Every structure is written in structure tokens, then in C-alpha cells.
Amino acid sequence: MTSFPDAFLWGAATSAYQIEGSPDADGRGRSVWDSFVERPGAVEGGGDARIACDSYRRWQDDIDILSELGIKAYRFSLAWSRIMPDGRGRANPHGLDHYDRMIDELRRRGIEPIVTLNHWDMPEALLADGGWIGRGSVDAFVEYAVAASDRLGDRVDWWITQNEPWIIQLLGYQLGLHAPGIRDLRGAVTAGHHVLLAHGKAVDAMRSSTSGRIGAALNLLPCVPATASAEDAAAAWGSDGYVNRWFLDPLLRDGYPDDMRAHWERATGAPLDDVIRPGDEAAIAGRSDFLGINFYTHRVMAAAEPGPDRPFPWQVVGSTGEVERTDEGTEIVPDALRDLLIRVHRDYPGVPLMITENGAISGDSPTHDGQVHDVRRTRYLRAHVAAMAEALEAGVPLVGYTHWSLLDNFEWALGYRPRFGLVYVDFRTGERIIKDSARDYARIVRDGGLAAPERARGPQVDSLGAFG
Ligand code: FCB
Questions:
Q1: Which domain holds residue 102?
Q2: What tens digit of pLDDT does each residue of 46-87 get?
Q3: Is residue 58 part of a domain?
């Protein structure tokens, strides 16, 4: 038996926009995603999230499923525009009521709520000031965080302020593939900075109404050189600065890394002093009680000449050898999770770590027996649990794991095609079907780890039926 602490938070994760639907209920305002999905071509298949998993109405069904599976923690997000419909000023009590009820019910069932504040659905009204590019976004976020914490803070022990600042910056403001669909390199680095600054200021402001632990969730991608050349090693380190250290260093050390700051200043043609103002780095540093890590894969990097579509001197090339991949081609590298956890603990000691997302697309749907036999998701999950066990054995202070995702859901610009859920959702009827992977996970949760580590990297297919 691998040794996970008794208090380990075995959980599952979702986010509001991806599951809730009911965009007009109870005084919700519009979010940046509501208008983004209306742009022709923005979402594969042309879908929107007006219904999604219908979880705003079916939230009790979701909690029933968590409870049936014995899952101990539920990471979900509050819809920012339900609570601050106009972006600033008035908080909407009806939006808060919804989450109040959910949190009470989770607690009643013995499920730990892990609450994310910004899972990308910023109120549309804040776009008037440039969204995250505008410095006013920082105060707007603090107002929202305080409204949430004033109302819910007595019952929430785990808060995540921001989900994946790098993805907000990259897809929302650099490449324009996510809301608000802006393509502006300097705007992107500015937006990312404001996301972090908002984290720091929100943490300070929330302390008076909650004694819960407050952190941010970063999507970290270990960057591996494609070859043994010095150029590729530099490319991997540069990319590590872009994706990982640019966020880790200010949150968990004392400011942005110089090497990456120089890359940004070169690529955007000007110093960043007007963006990163005196006092900003001090307002971000040293405030996180834990770090959330979203882990999916790694990046294999090679040196490359910068060009119009390549601001930095590196590119992702992928692995050349045999590597297992998900349905979408994402490389499955659980050992990289173990190594990443050990590295983060070594470079930023003293901070508890939580895997706030980890999961895989696997398109399985119900077969003749009405069940979903998603063998590959089971294998993926077990391999990553084994990697976490190895990290724990190496001394990493890992406190929890919330699998992405509890439910098949609206996968942003990719629409409904990619299925990440432990639970299948029929998007026409809203029906939920617990997949085999969820039953296997339930057993891991019950046992507090993998009972037979030798099976960690590949369960026998016929063993899956045994606990259905
Ligand atoms: C992460 C997001 C999450 C989901 C997964 C697949 O980047 O945080 O909402 O889209 O990827």
C-alpha cells in the first residue's frame, strides 16, 4: 500500500462556466465567455454553455454522485458574474445564496469544498477597462473576493483565487483563442501581471473574513530539451521561465525572474516598469498558504529563431520516441509529475502542494450494457496516483488531488467533443452515468491509495468489472 496521509483530499474538480448553464438565472450578469462563444468559429462545433451540464439546477445530483463515490473533496468555482453582475459595486445576494446552499450541503455530506474564485468567467462589464489588461481589474477582483469570503468564508477552508494565470494570459490575451479573444503581446504580459497582483491583494483582503487557506492554481509544464545540445537546453530553460517560473517566482519567492523579464522586454520592445510598478512584487510575494498545480503533460523544447508568430527563441517540438498519448495526442508522462513535485518542493520549499487538476480526454461513451468502460482514463489516473505516492515518499508535502473532471463538460474553445469526466454526461438529456474510471477512483479513495502498486501502470482490463 502506498502511503497517502489520512487527511489527504481525494477530490474531483469542475468550473462554473463549464458545467452550470442557466446564464440568466437569479440576476447573473454576462461574462466574457458569453460573448466570446457568439463569435463565429470561436468554439469548435459552434456550441455554447447555455445548458452545459445544467449543474446550476442539478447541483444536488452532482453532490449525490460525489457522495456515492465517497469522494472527499469537491473543487468547483463560483461564477464571478453571478456574484458581481456589473463587475464593480453591488454584490448579488441571489448568486451568493446558490453557493451558500451548495457549501452547506457538501459539508453536511462530509465533502470538503475547495472554492475557486476566477475560473476565467470575468464579468463582461470589466472589458470596458480592457479586462485583465486594465489595472482596474485588480480592485474589481478584490471586491468580488471579499464579497465571496464575507458570505462563505466561515465554511470554506480551501480557496483558490486564480486558475491558470498563464493560460488566461496566453489564450485570452496573446493568441485570442479564449475569451476575451485579444491578440496583444504586451497586453498579455500586462494581463498576467494583474492576475497575480489581484491574487496578492485579494488574499490580504480576505484574511479578515476567512481563516481558510488561500492559494492560486498554476498549470505547470515541465520543459524538456529535445536533444542534448546546449541550444535546446537553453530553449527548455527559457520556456520554463515563460510557463512556470514567471508565475512561481513572484508567488513563492520575491519577484519575477530576470531572465524571463529580459525576454519579455525584448519581445515587446520596451521595459516593463510601467506594468510592474514599485510595490507590486511585494504585494504578490509570500501570501500563498499552498500552491495548486494543474498537471497534464510536459513540453519538449528546441531552439528556434523568433519570428512574427514566435516571440521567443524556442518552440515546442514534442517527443520523437514512443510515448503514450491521449485521444487528442497529449503525451502521457506520469513520471514528469513526480519529478515536477520534487522540483517545486526543492526550489520553493515550505509550501504545501495540491494537484488541483489532472486528467485526460478519452472519448468513451456508453456501450451495449449502458456503462462507460473508459479503461484508458483508469490507467491514466492510476499512473498519476502512483507518481504522487512516489513524490510523497520523497518528502513532498502533497495535501490533495482533485481529478479533472467530475463531469464531461464544456471544454472551452473545443466545445463538447473532448470528454474529461469521471462521469459521462448526455448533453441532450442531462443524464449522468458513472464511468468505470470513477468506480476505480472510488476504490482508491476508500483505500487511501493504490492497494497493489505493481498494477499502478496498467490495470488488467478484466479487473475493472470486479468493483463496478
Ligand atoms: C485546464 C482548465 C480546465 C479544463 C482543463 C482540461 O486548463 O483549467 O478548465 O479546461 O484544462
A1: 9-358+384-420+440-467
A2: 999 999 999 999 999 999 999 999 999 999 999 999 999 999
A3: yes
Taking the centre of ligand 1 as the mean of its atom positions, its distance from the CA of residue 271, in whole angstroms, is 32
Q: Which of 273, 278, 124, 118 shows the shortest CA–CA distance to 198?
A: 118
| pTM, to two decimals | 0.96
- Amino acid found at 348: Y
Whether 218 maps to a domain, the answer reads yes
pLDDT at 461 over 70: no
Active site residue 124: no
Give the CATH number for residue 303.
3.20.20.80
Q: Tell whether the torsion through CA atoms of 169, 170, 175 and 181 is positive or negative.
A: negative
Rounded to the nearest angstrom, the distance between the alpha carbon of 358 and the centre of ligand 1 is: 9
Quick one: 301 exposed, middle or buried, by C-beta within 10 A (0-12, 13-18, 19+)? buried
Domain total of the chain: 1
